[in-house]
Each structure stands twice: as structure tokens, then as C-alpha cells.
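ASSEMBLY PREDICTION REQUEST
Request ID: AP-0331
Submitted by: J.K., bench scientist
Number of chains: two
Total residues: 306
Priority: normal
Notes: Please return the full assembly, not individual chains.
Input sequences:
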Amino acid sequence: MRYYEDLKVGDRFSGGPLTVTEDDIVGFAARFDPQPFHLDAEAAKGTLFGGLAASGWHTASLTMRMIVGSDTELAGGYIGVGVDSIAWPKPTRPGDRLRVESEVVELRLSGKRPDRGIVRIRTVTLNQADEIVQTMVANLLVPARAAAAAVPA
Amino acid sequence: MRYYEDLKVGDRFSGGPLTVTEDDIVGFAARFDPQPFHLDAEAAKGTLFGGLAASGWHTASLTMRMIVGSDTELAGGYIGVGVDSIAWPKPTRPGDRLRVESEVVELRLSGKRPDRGIVRIRTVTLNQADEIVQTMVANLLVPARAAAAAVPA
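STATUS: Completed
Returned structure:
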């Protein structure tokens, strides 16, 4: 398990792959983003997307799933305090096989809680053709090892 | 239906409410964010969250659901090109009744495609106690009315 002190700028992690079906895309959209271009392959043809496309929130949620299953292994888990940016340069399509590549871009100890660090991580989500379907910069809360050591046994 | 020209800075929209159950929280987490504090009320007690908490991506997805069902009624639907920021000041908890309040903060025509505008919208997601569970600034692609008029009949 990695604590705040075990991480440094430039550390890289990867996760996935994970294949997305048309049923997955339509099922997510029905619950969270019920718009024609996410729900119906036929109706999607006449839209900006030109065919069925996953909700960006579906791509973001699948990205989280791959981060949680990745080789990062952060102590305390993956607790996001927020996101600095997300972009969806291309949509996720039925049958896409996604994977994630993450890199630590900044580290700082919390001002209020010196037993915790904030780790800024850039994660790129790619499809089977190595096209980028999402870029994200997120801030994760990672416990400091010093704090863990200070906890009474 | 609202086109780019129909929107102005300061326009406000609202959506919801929508109630979140423990089953919803656990079901979403099992698929997209399988960590103890999102999966198991008992295990969550000993974590930073102090009890079962929804994944931030669940809160974001529910927010999208309320935006799609809101009174905004954008022509072309709600197509996000990206997100400038998301923060989760408090987690969504089992039984929470959420709602969204959105405000247009910036408007610009696309440089590349003058038939489309980019509308920056700030959306706050609140629970039944009016506590903020999410703030988000997102950029939506909205067709311009001029472009719609130019489409041959």
C-alpha cells in the first residue's frame, strides 16, 4: 500500500482493460442521462454523435472502476476531493475496450490536516485504437505514513 | 426549446428532487467504485466518511439525471464538451433528497463552428438540508438558432 510519502511526481499507474457493450451504454443512460444519442442507436444517427455514444458520465464512472482496480494501491483507497478538469475528446462507443493511464502531477500536504496529503493525478482513458476518450485531472486525498504510525496500537 | 441566442449570463434553471436509497448507493459502487465506504454501511463506519457515502461519480451522474429532467430545455440536448471543476464538499448519504440549481456563467460562439455556442454553466447539487454535496462548472455545446434556420427544409 502506498502512503503520501511513497508517491512522487511522475509516478505512473495503469488500469483496465474493460469492454463496454451497447447494453451497458443504454442501461447507464436510461438511469442517468436519458437522451436519444445515448439510448437508441437508430435515433443517434441523426445527432451530433452520428451513432450511439456513451454518456460522458459513463466514461468517467468506468474510468473510476479501472482506477480502483489499478496497480496504484493507495492507502485509504481512492478518495477524490474534487476534479480540476474533464474533457471528452471522443465518445465511448459500443464494443470499445478501454484502459487508463495515470500520472502523479503534483503533491502537497493538506494545510488543515498534516496527516493527509493531496495528490493531483492526471488520468487518460483510451480505447482499443489508442484514441483518447477522456482526460481528467483529479485531486485525491492520501493519508501520510507519519500519521498512520502515530495511531496508537 | 432554447438555442444559444436564447441564453444569457445569469439565467437560472433548477431540477430534481430525486431521492437516493442505500441500495442505489451500493449498486452504483459495486459497478463503478467498489470501495468499502461506498459498499458496506458497517465497514464505512471506520473510514474517513464515518458511514456509507455515495461515490462522487454517483452524485455526478444523479446531477446529470436532474439536469436532463430540468426546465433548461436546451435545443440539441445536454452535450458536455468538458468540465472545468467538480468538488464534493459533503458526500451524498442514504435517504438524501437531492436537487440541482444551475446558472449560466459564460457564453461564447465556437471559434471553429459558428453554428454552435459553448455555454458555461455552474451547477450546485444540494441535499434536503440545503447542504452542498457537489459544485460543478461544465461547458455545454448548444446549437445557434441562426444555424438551425439555415438547414434546408
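REVIEWER COMMENTS: The first strand of chain A starts at residue 12 and ends at 19.
SIGN-OFF: pending second reviewer
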